[in-house]
Amino acid sequence: MVLNGSEILVNVLLEQGVDTVFGYPGGAVLNIYDALYKYSDRITHYMTAHEQGASHAADGYARATGKTGVVIATSGPGATNLVTGIATAYMDSVPMVAITGNVPNNLIGADSFQEVYIAGITLPITKHNFVVRRVEDLADTLRRAFEIAGSGRPGPVLVDIPKDVTAAKTEYEAKPAVKTVRCNGIKGDIKEVAELINRSERPFIYFGGGVRLSEAGEELRQLIETADIPASYTLMAAGVLGYGEENNLGLIGMHGCYSANAAANRADVMLAIGTRFSDRVALNPDKFGHNARIVHIDIDPSEINKNIIADYSIVGDVKEVLTELLKYVKPTKHDAWHEQIKRWKQDDYKPEDSTTELKPHYLVEKACEIAGKDAVYVTDVGQHQMWAAQFLHHTHPRNFLTSGGLGTMGYGYGAAIGAKIARGKDTTVVHFTGDGSFHMNMNEICTAVSYGVHVITVIFNNSVLGMVRQWQGAFYDRRFSSSEPERITNYKAVAEGFGGHGFRCETPDEFEAAMKQAMEMDGPVWIECIVDREEKVLPMIPGGKTVHDTIFN
Amino acid sequence: MKIMKQRCMVVLVDNNAGVLARISSLFVQRGFNIDSLTVSPTENEKLSRLTIMTTGDEKTFQQIIKQTGKLVETRLIFLVEPSFSMVRELMLAKYRTSADEIAELSELIASYGGKIADASDGCIVAQLSDTPQVLDDFLSAARKFKLIELGRTGVIAMERGNVSYEL
Question: How far is CA A262 from CA A137, A242, A458, in A?
Fold first, then answer.
């Protein structure tokens, strides 16, 4: 069957099972959008306010489902507007295929209108990228893009297509969806590691997003139960273990639980599973887990010995590795170790309640109580993100979406819209944001209005850039440089101006009422919550320091 | 303590447009040193061969190998073991010479296994090919002559004997 490049593109998307794409039209992708129009009964395109929103929507869609997210943008500014979204996906290992149009082949390199070398720009933030110069190469290149994005440690792949290629015709033959391969085999001594676990007195697990990507929550739980190992998670793995589960110590790292950080510090064996010892967890790489023999399990060999030197390493898919490991791990109990951890837990930070003011932990907990454990929670970046990570009762691995590695303010709204579209009307999506983050991409409310996407946005409005200000307070002698913008945005009016709903709350009662009403509404709902600017994310271990330097107030 | 060494590694990559940019971008991004880098065709037209001289500690070398090895277009990467390998670099060095210096410089070039590639306009271009160390030695030995232009290719390397890679 002879098709033009744009029709081939859409057909390959359909081959891969893609029925939803996000993007924004423009000159270089007019042919592609013409094909999307033609195939609109089989593939739905969601147009956002800004390409960045589309890239985050594709990311949110991917994180909420495990499928590869797809985003389309035109050449030049369309392509560069994707950059933050692609980098966000790259840092958090999110499978994504970004398709950009470019100027026609004969205009490439001539500084043509809306021309950028997006393949060059995205070199360090993609798993791989392609420029498709010939229509004959298009179908297989796109298939390869999906294969790369979804295989091994997932990530974004960009395919740049000059406009003439989207119009040129060639023979197209449908093929089955590409098979993604997680990992070929296991490298490392499973038995030796099992022996180490069996001999240990104070074992400790610190796990990350790799467990979620590998869907290895059940295997992890078995290991934890069999060998009686306390475990704590990174931001990327919230929800892999359920809230309140035995041996779930909660969040680790800079704003993690004191008891989790103390356990990491005192452990004699540390199993680091599907994680990468980032500088927000291994704050001081020389001291982190320094009493422990460290076992590093990860799918990506380049993570081994990158940030810290492991005593043992196993490279492989976490699920497979844990399945093997479980064959050799003996049931045991570590009562003395648990007693010690229980004592540390008494020192865990506990926020104070208030009946009159909106406290951050109250907002998170109340929203969670009303929206329920099956809701998807999406955050932006900053204080509210850490409060959400700390106080949500995480229960599902794909129900907490947050920009961990890149820390992208403005991630949340697009991602929440993408997640809601992915999960459908039966899933509530709650977007936690701060007044700082939200001002970056609040314009995406128009997308939610256009498509009737019900996302509840809870805005922690403390009138300042809370996290920046917190650091300035702690380390810059309260010189609040550019962190107190004194904006007077009327969120309710803005939301209504866009065609959405808005609430403003100052007390717990008002918030509870607004949240309950929001659950029953359609389309986007904003709930502005007035929070004291002196509220801090606690506890905190400053960068480069250890659990002994924990700040509690 | 970090013990810094210089090592040579060979990378076989798909012969695609942009592959050199991809690898050099990775080196710059992660702060790996490039002392020299050469790219050339190979016995297989689908592959290009990069030879990279880099300075770092053992941990850095391991990271270079893993990160470069992770690129989709990398087929093979290995460290070249100096004792089993030939490492060669080509050099052109132009000297401005007076008539009475020519004989001595010519002799020196010959003693390093080089040849005179050009002699014109009162200048001699020495062409030498050897290990980087030998080329450095030659330059030291020829320091008394007036060097006006120098170009070196960076190294290529190959293991001795009946050894070859399999992809």
Answer: 55, 21, 32
Which member of B22, B62, B63 has the closest CB to residue A123?
Answer: B22
| A58, A29 Cβ separation under 8 angstroms | no
Burial class (CB in 10 A: 0-12, 13-18, 19+), A535: buried
* Residue B161 at interface with chain A, using a CB cutoff of 8 Å: no
Q: What is the CATH number of the domain that holds B41?
A: 3.30.70.260
CA quadruple A164, A169, A173, A174: dihedral positive or negative?
Answer: positive
Chain A's closest residue to B73, CA to CA, is A128
* CATH T-level assignment (fold) for domain A360-530: Rossmann fold (3.40.50)
Give yes or no: A96 in active site. Answer: no
Tell me how far CA of residue A395 lies from CA of A68, A240, A399, in angstroms.
Answer: 23, 7, 8
- Tell whether B98 and B57 lie within a shared domain: no
Let me know: does A154 contact A213? Beta carbons within 8 Å: yes
**Cβ distance of A120 and B26 shorter than 8 Å:** no
Residue B62 and residue A124: Cβ atoms within 8 Å?
Answer: no
Question: Pick from A128, A148, A302: which is nearest to B67 by CB?
Answer: A302
Tell me B157's DSSP state.
E
B66 close contact with A: CB closer than 8 A: yes
Q: Give the right CATH number for A190-345 from 3.60.15.10, 2.60.120.10, 3.40.50.1220, 2.30.30.30.
A: 3.40.50.1220
* CA angle in degrees (0–180, nearest 5) for A366-A369-A374: 135
User: Chain A partners of B60 at a C-beta cutoff of 8 Å?
Assistant: none
* Closest residue by Cα to residue B31 from A280, A124, A158: A124
Q: How many residues does chain A have?
A: 553
| Domain A2-171 fold | Rossmann fold (3.40.50)
Across the interface, do B59 and A305 touch by the CB < 8 Å criterion?
yes
Query: How many CA atoms lie within 13 Å of B6's alpha carbon, on the beta-carbon side?
Result: 10
Q: Count of domains in chain B?
A: 2
A114 catalytic, yes or no?
yes
Distance in Å, alpha carbon of A124 to nearest chain B alpha carbon: 7
What are the φ and ψ backbone dihedral angles of B140, each rounded to 5 degrees?
-65, -45
Spatial distance between the Cα atoms of A357 and A535, rounded to a whole number of angstroms: 11
Specify whether A175 is catalytic.
no
The boundaries of the domain holding residue B66 are: 5-79
Cβ <8 Å between B21 and A123: yes
How are the residues of chain B apportioned to helix, strand and coil, as percentages rounded to the nearest 5? 30, 45, 25
Per-residue pLDDT of chain A (553 residues; tens, 9 = 90+): 999 999 999 999 999 999 999 999 999 999 999 999 999 999 999 999 999 999 999 999 999 999 999 999 999 999 999 999 999 999 999 999 999 999 999 999 999 999 999 999 999 999 999 999 999 999 999 999 999 999 999 999 999 999 999 999 999 999 999 999 998 899 999 999 999 999 999 999 999 999 999 999 999 999 999 999 999 999 999 999 999 998 999 999 999 999 999 999 999 999 999 999 999 999 999 999 999 999 999 999 999 999 999 999 999 999 999 999 999 999 999 999 999 999 999 999 999 999 999 999 999 999 999 999 999 999 999 999 999 999 999 999 999 999 999 999 999 999 999 999 999 999 999 999 999 999 999 999 999 999 999 999 999 999 999 999 999 999 999 999 999 998 999 999 999 999 999 999 999 999 999 999 999 999 999 999 999 999 999 999 999 999 999 999 8
B11 and B73 assigned to the same domain: yes
Nearest-angstrom CA–CA distance, A322 and A337: 23
A157-189 CB burial, b ≥16 within 10 A, e <16: bbbbbbbbbbbbebebeeeeebeeebbeebebe
Catalytic annotation present for A51: yes
- Is-cis flag, bond preceding B82, omega within 30? no
Whole-number Cα distances in Å, B45 to B24, B41, B42, B123: 22, 7, 6, 39
